[in-house]
Write a structure and sequence with these properties.
The protein has 219 residues and is mainly alpha-helical. Helix content is 86%, strand content 0%. The chain contains 9 helices and no strands. Helix 3 crosses helix 4, helix 3 crosses helix 8 and helix 8 crosses helix 9.
Length: 219
């Protein structure tokens, strides 16, 4: 019984239930659409703390970060929503044009989309961790994502995974949506946070890992 109460299985089940709760909070708080930015900041505030082995209270930590980041995160969401819509319309128009330089235009737009997605994948975690302003969050997210090498691509792919899954297997659309409604977004945020904290604050991440290792060695 002690193994079930305190062992690895109990720890796994606790984390699993926490991720389900966190995912539902993110989904419900994102329903007004314009609150997606604040909800995502709150999601990353919890998962970054989990990556640092802090074991935060899911509900109180989520809503505290949601309130703290609401104005700046909403402004960022509107900026990136507008920029994403602009890029999508430009790309659609480029595919419709019948001109000689169409390929060049498409490549330029796709290059812009790469930088857009790279910054978007980092900007909300940056805002919630560093508590910077809108402009500074964008600037910091850009430089961090550009210095992140292959891990930036990993984070981008993780964030775009539901889109890829639906495109690859549209017949399983319902199952994919159900999985992401229950667990998917919090799992992605957790996996990304485990790397992002080492990018944002490597010394703090190493210290947290060291303390957690020492705690596990205690009888």
């Amino acid at each position: 019984m002690k193994v079930l109460q305190e062992g690895p299985l109990a720890s796994f089940l606790t984390r699993f239930i926490d991720l389900i709760l966190l995912n539902l909070l993110w989904f419900l708080c994102s329903l007004p659409i314009f609150t997606i930015g604040a909800s995502t900041c709150a999601l990353y505030d919890v998962t970054i703390r989990q990556a640092l082995h802090e074991n935060p209270s899911i509900v109180s930590t989520f809503f505290r970060a949601f309130r703290r980041c609401f104005k700046k995160a909403t402004a960022l969401f509107l900026i990136f929503f507008g920029a994403g819509l602009f890029l999508a319309v430009d790309l659609w128009c480029a595919f419709q044009w019948d001109i000689q330089i169409r390929f060049v235009i498409i490549v330029v737009i796709l290059a812009g989309a790469y930088f857009y997605l790279a910054v978007l994948s980092h900007v909300f975690p940056v805002l919630t961790y560093f508590d910077t302003g809108v402009k500074e969050s964008i600037r910091k997210a850009f430089f961090l994502s550009m210095s992140n090498g292959v891990f930036t691509v990993f984070i981008m792919v993780m964030n775009l995974l539901p889109v890829f899954m639906i495109l690859i297997s549209p017949v399983n659309f319902g199952q994919i949506i159900f999985f992401y409604f229950i667990l998917g977004f919090s799992v992605i945020a957790m996996l990304c946070s485990m790397h992002l904290i080492r990018l944002f604050d490597p010394e703090r991440a190493e210290e947290a890992d060291r303390l957690e290792s020492e705690r596990k060695r205690l009888p």
